[in-house]
Amino acid sequence: MPRLFLCDDAPGYRRLLREVFRDEEDLEIVGEACDGLECLRAVTAAAPDVVLLDLNMPRLNGREVIPRLLAAAPEAQVVVISSEHPEVAEHDVLALGAVAFIQKPMNAFSLAGLMREKVGTLDRRRGPRGVVRAQRSVASG
């Protein structure tokens, strides 16, 4: 079951994401944070497969968090969800190491499907974390 970590400074938006993903039997929310600094502190213990990250947050913004997050949790994939203009923001976040950019606002109830399209770890047939990573490394080697 893919493990998700939510990082957005808007409590209402995090609540909406929890509601959306609660009905997805193959996804599990393992933690959340209200800013980039809290995200960095919590993500290592949570061991997520995917971090949903907002760009515009207090203390550390998403652009500052991505490289630090990938250093702290190299197996996690970062999906940025932001209201910033996609032509600039998408280029920036992909260059920093994110695997996908999704522009807000979007139909929140289509988010799980959008993520499955953009992130390989959200395959419904996926097995345990270690098995998937071993299969991925064999396939790429």
Task: Identify the quaternary structure here.
Answer: single chain
Number of strands: 5
Output the structural class. Answer: alpha/beta
Topology pattern, helix = H, strand = E: EHEHEHEHEHH
The global form is: globular
- Poorly predicted runs: 124-141
| Helix percent band | 40-55%
Molecular structure report:
- The radius of gyration is 14 Å and the shape is globular.
- Strands 2-1-3-4-5 form a five-stranded parallel sheet, with helices on both faces.
- The chain has six helices and five strands, in the order βαβαβαβαβαα.
- Helix 2 packs parallel to helix 3.
- The C terminus is likely disordered.
- Helix content is 46%, strand content 18%.
- The relative contact order is 0.16.
- By secondary structure, the chain is α/β, with parallel strands linked by helices.
Topology (SSEs and partners):
Blueprint: E1 3-7, H1 11-22, E2 28-33, H2 36-46, E3 50-53, H3 62-72, E4 77-82, H4 86-96, E5 100-103, H5 111-118, H6 129-140
Parallel strand pairs: 1-2, 1-3, 3-4, 4-5
Helix pairs in contact: 2-3
In short:
The protein is of the alpha/beta class.
List keywords for this structure.
141 residues, alpha/beta, five-stranded parallel sheet, 6 helices, 18% strand, globular, disordered C terminus
